[in-house]
Amino acid sequence: MARKSYRLVTVLMVMLLVFGLALVACKAPAETVTPPAPPAEEVQPPAEEVQPPAEEVQPPAEETQPPAPAELSYPAKTYTNSEYGFSIQYPDSWVERPEIAKGTIIASFGMPGFVPGVSASVRDADAPMTADWVVAADTAEGNSSVKVTSPLTETTLDDGTPAVQYTQTYTSADGYSIVAFAISTDKNGKRIRASVWTIDAFSPYDEALASEITHTLSVK
C-alpha cells in the first residue's frame, strides 16, 4: 500500500512538473524575428545632359562698298569714251579743243582758245611704265625737250583703280613751253592717260586743280 502511494505521488509530481514546464513555455513571449531589410537601392546621380556643340556664329560678311563719288571743287562736265571704256570730268567752263586732239590724243578740253586744258590719250601698253617710256611716247607725238620732273608715283583714281602719276615739261609742236600733271592707268592692253597742261607764263600751274581733274579719270 505504501508502495502504491509512493508511485502515485511520484506520478503526480512528474505530471505537475511536466504541466508546470508546459505552462512556463506557453507564457514565454515568442521572439519576434525581423526579416533582414532589403539592400538599399543605389541612387544613381542624374545623367549629365550632353549639350550639342554651340553653333559657331559667323560674323556677317563685310560688304564691299564702291568708293563714294569724289566731291569736286568745280562744276563739271563729263567726257565718256565708249570705245576704250573710260571717262573724265573737267570744269564746265572749258570747251572742246579739237585742234589738240591728234595722234594718240583722242579728246581735249580747255579754256576757250588758250590754257589750261586737259587731254586724254590712249596708247598701247607695250612696255613697263617708266620715265623713259613717257619721254619716248611724248616725243613721238611731235613734242621736244620732254622731261619727267617728278618720280612716277603710285596713286588711286577716284573710282578705286590703281594708277601712276607724275609731272613733266616739254615744248609743244607749235613752240610753247608746257608744264603738265599726268595720270596713267592700263586697261585691256591700252595705256590711258589724262594730262592737265598749261603755259606757266600765261596761266600759272595749279597742281592741286590738275591732280583733282586727272583723278576723275575712271575706267570702271
Summarize the structure.
This protein is 20% helix and 30% strand. With 220 residues, it is of the alpha+beta class. The chain has a domain at 76-214: Mog1/PsbP, alpha/beta/alpha sandwich (Protein Transport Mog1p, Chain A, 3-Layer(aba) Sandwich).
Question: What does it look like?
Answer:
The protein is an alpha+beta fold and 220 residues long. The chain has a domain of 139 residues: Mog1/PsbP, alpha/beta/alpha sandwich (Protein Transport Mog1p, Chain A, 3-Layer(aba) Sandwich), CATH 3.40.1000. Helix content is 20%, strand content 30%. It is built from three helices and ten strands. Strands 3, 4, 5, 6, 7, 8, 9 and 10 form an eight-stranded antiparallel beta sheet that branches. Strands 1-2 form a two-stranded antiparallel sheet. A hairpin with a 5-residue loop joins strand 7 and strand 8. The radius of gyration is 57 Å and the shape is elongated. About 6% of the residues have low confidence.
- Give the biggest beta sheet: 8 strands, antiparallel
Mean pLDDT: 82
By CATH, the topology of one domain is Protein Transport Mog1p, Chain A
- H/E series: HEEEEEHEEEEEH
Uncertain residue segments: 21-33
Shape: elongated
If helices are DSSP runs of H or I spanning 4 or more residues, what is the number of helices? 3
What is the CATH level 1 assignment of one domain?
Answer: Alpha Beta
The share of residues in extended strands comes to 25-35%
| Cα Rg | 57 Å
Helix content: 10-25%
Q: Which structural class do you get from the secondary structure elements?
A: alpha+beta
Strands, count: 10
Secondary-structure arrangement, i.e. CATH architecture of one domain? 3-Layer(aba) Sandwich
The CATH superfamily of one domain bears the name Mog1/PsbP, alpha/beta/alpha sandwich
First-last Cα distance: 157 Å
